[in-house]
Every structure is written in C-alpha cells, then in structure tokens.
Specification:
It is a single chain. The chain is built from 6 helices and 4 strands, in the order αααβββαβαα. By secondary structure, it is α+β, with helices and mostly antiparallel strands. The chain folds into 2 domains: 67 residues, no CATH class; 121 residues, Nucleotidyltransferase, domain 5, CATH 3.30.420. The protein is flat, with a radius of gyration of 21 Å. The termini are far apart.
Length: 201
C-alpha cells in the first residue's frame, strides 16, 4: 500500500529512456543508410519524420530494421552498367499524421542504385492519383539534371524511362488535361510540367 507517485515516476523514467534509445538507434541506422545500406532508405525516411513523437508502431518498425541489418550483414553493394538510366517514381498516399503523402524516386543505370530519394510531400492531395502526379512533378528536376549530366560526360542518353504503377497518373502525365475528369479538374497546371517534357521528347 502507498502513494502511486513512484509508479508514475518509474513510468516517466522508462519513457525518457525509451526516447533516448529511440534517438540513438535511429541516428545510427540513418548513418548506416547514408553510407552503405540504401536498401533500408524507404523505412528510415519514414521514421525520420517521427522523431518528435514516435509511437509503438514506429518502435516495431525500427526493431524490424535492426533485425534485417543483423540478418544481412554479409550482403554486398554491387553495380553494373546497363542500357541507360531508368527511373521509378512512387508515392504512399496519406501515410503521415497530417494526411500528407510520401514520395520516393529511384534511378539505376543497370544493376544497383545510382540515386534514390524519399521525402514527405509538402502539399495535401485529394487522391492517390494526385499524390503520384505530384511525386513525378517533384522528381522531374532531378531526372532532367541527371540526363544533362550524363550527356555532358559524353554518355548517349536515350529516351528517359519513368516507371509508374498508377494507370490514371500515367494517362494524366502523357495526355494532360485531355484525360482529366471532374475528379482531377482542380489540379494546378504546373503539375502538367511532366506532360510538356514527355511531348518534348
């Protein structure tokens, strides 16, 4: 029998310890990700947006990453030249607490990752199609820069291929407003920058 204050203090101490462990482990994983293990970049990019208020689900994700790294310690990073740059652009719709989406881009010149980036979108979107189109629009600058960089190095760059898994987004990117409906009428014209570049090629 007694006052419940020690139990409250103990719970708060546990929470503070968990917070410190969370920050330390996340920092270590981020260092590994940036230096050599881009295969954990997707998960780490999402966890880096949960720095201030991680929940139990975030702790479980971090634990899974640690187990994965432990089980794949002998994996090697290998790259091989191929037929030119290929890009994959994707987004996860409304995965953040403020209902914003998360974008990811990935480039390969054959085998292995040459460039990859993941970030939280800065605008709220009304559908997964709009989130995917915004992801393409945000990645076009990097795609065009990489294309010009390779050309300056004397590398022949064929038509740039961007892989996308949303059929509605593909139609909007290729045809612009002609394939727009009442559900996509609100999209700002700047999102059809991708359409202009596709027609330009």
């Amino acid at each position: 029998m007694g006052c419940p204050q020690p139990q409250l203090h103990y719970t708060y101490s546990m929470w503070m310890t968990a917070q410190r462990n969370w920050m330390k482990t996340r920092r270590n994983c981020s260092t590994i990700w940036w230096r050599s293990r881009q295969d954990i970049q997707t998960a780490m990019a999402l966890l880096c947006t949960r720095v201030q208020s991680p929940d139990m689900d975030n702790y479980k994700k971090l634990a899974c990453i640690m187990k994965y790294l432990h089980g794949t310690r002998d994996i090697t990073l290998s790259m091989e030249a191929g037929d030119g740059p290929k890009w994959w652009v994707d987004s996860s719709y409304a995965v953040h607490p403020d209902m914003r989406s998360h974008s990811g881009i990935f480039m390969t010149l054959g085998k292995g990752t040459m460039y990859s980036a993941y970030s939280k979108q800065k605008l709220n979107t009304k559908s997964s199609t709009e989130a995917e189109l915004l992801a393409i629009d945000n990645s076009k600058g990097q795609i065009l820069w990489s294309r010009h960089f390779l050309a300056v190095q004397g590398e022949h760059v064929p038509t740039t291929t961007i892989y996308q898994d949303n059929k509605s987004t593909i139609l909007l990117a290729e045809k612009g407003k002609t394939s727009s409906s009442k559900w996509t009428r609100h999209l700002n014209i700047r999102y059809f920058f991708a359409t202009d570049k596709i027609k330009g090629e």
